[in-house]
Amino acid sequence: MNNHEYEVGLRKTDLDTPSLLVDLPVVERNIKKMADYCRSAGVALRPHAKIYKATPIFAWMQIRAGAIGITVSKLSEAEVLAAGGIQEILIANQIVGPQKVRRLINLAGHTHVIVAVDSIKNAEELSFAAVSRGIRLDVLVEVNIGNNRCGVEPYDATLEFTGLLSKLPGLRFKGLMGYDGHLAFLGDLQERDRLSRLAYQILVDTSRCLERAGIPVDIVSGGGSATYRSAASVEGITELQAGTYVFNDTTYRNNGLDEFECALSILATIISRPNRPGAEELAILDVGRKALEVTYGFPEVKYPLGEIFSMPQEHSRLRIAPGGPDLEIGDKVELWVRDANGTVNLYDTIYAIRDEIVEAAWDLTGRGKVT
């Protein structure tokens, strides 16, 4: 673990670069806004931690605001959160293979873990391990509601699957989950809302199919940041797994999630002002593709006015807007993060900024945890 004591109290522009910054008041407002919405909508919130790589401080901020637990994608993220004291964790993914199953069962021995399943082979593997350890493992059946990734097909197929699952010792069926990730960036917002409601209605109708057969369904879980309102509007959805809202990024903002503020930026340094014809407004920065995910395009410039028009591995080319400040080598530039999930995973440390001052420097303890 790094020692960041000397950085706390610095102005953010005094940090070494590239640095990952998070605007702490923005995060606090985003967390409160989602928590307040869920309370008003009558659904629980189990936010997804992959956006901040399972760093426990952010999970605790969400729980203190009212979240009932935390959702993760990876077993290793669950282990990081549990080590940070988080005791209610949903692994919204299938945990397959003897090594991972042993780790999962060990984790379930001291933390309440719920895990997704969508195959009897995997369920039998979990059942055997749970019985061997003498515990009951809670499971959700993942239902395919149109994302066409993991998941049992809805209605009768889920009913048949759950009936078989319920006979396995060591497992306790808790409910269903689904995800409409295929709709996240659908440009027509009204159509996105309509299709998302239909997708989550499939999940709810599947839960009612089970209940009519005498199988209680305690949890019906789903909803990402892009469609959280659509999911919450479907009667029978009990909880949301939205995650990106806590930081937001310009991709989600530009695709309709503008009620949450963008909190993440990258601080960079100007390392060259080329002196050649045609380069009068060109500045070269010390951040490139290795330090900023560009799957969705180049980052927008937060300060000063300008445009990133090229980004090799270790550099960026900034075209400074006419009439902007006379920037020199060594001056700092701040870039908005376009892909929060991808960018956060590139850094070991995130600097929490309040009023331009470093309030804290947190190690991203789940960074690189991919198992």
Mean pLDDT, rounded to whole units? 97
Hey, roughly how much beta strand do the residues contain?
Answer: 15-25%
| Contiguous runs where pLDDT drops below 50 for at least 5 residues | none
Q: Helix share of residues?
A: 25-40%
- How many separate helices? 10
- Reading off the top of the CATH hierarchy, the class of the largest domain is best stated as Alpha Beta
Query: Any idea what the CATH architecture of the largest domain is?
Result: Alpha-Beta Barrel
Can you put this structure into words, describing what you see?
- The chain has 371 residues and is α/β, with parallel strands linked by helices.
- It has two domains: 12-19 and 260-363, Lyase, Ornithine Decarboxylase, Chain A, domain 1 (Beta Barrel), CATH 2.40.37.20; 24-249, Alanine racemase (TIM Barrel).
- It has helices at residues 24-41, 56-64, 75-83, 98-108, 120-133, 156-165, 189-212, 228-232, 250-254, 340-344; strands spanning 19-23, 44-45, 70-72, 88-94, 112-117, 137-142, 171-177, 219-222, 239-240, 264-272, 282-285, 301-303, 306-310, 316-320, 332-336, 349-354, 357-363.
- Strands 1, 10, 11, 12, 13, 14, 15, 16 and 17 form a nine-stranded mixed beta sheet that branches. Strands 2-9-8-7-6-5-4-3 form an eight-stranded parallel beta sheet.
- The radius of gyration is 23 Å and the shape is elongated.
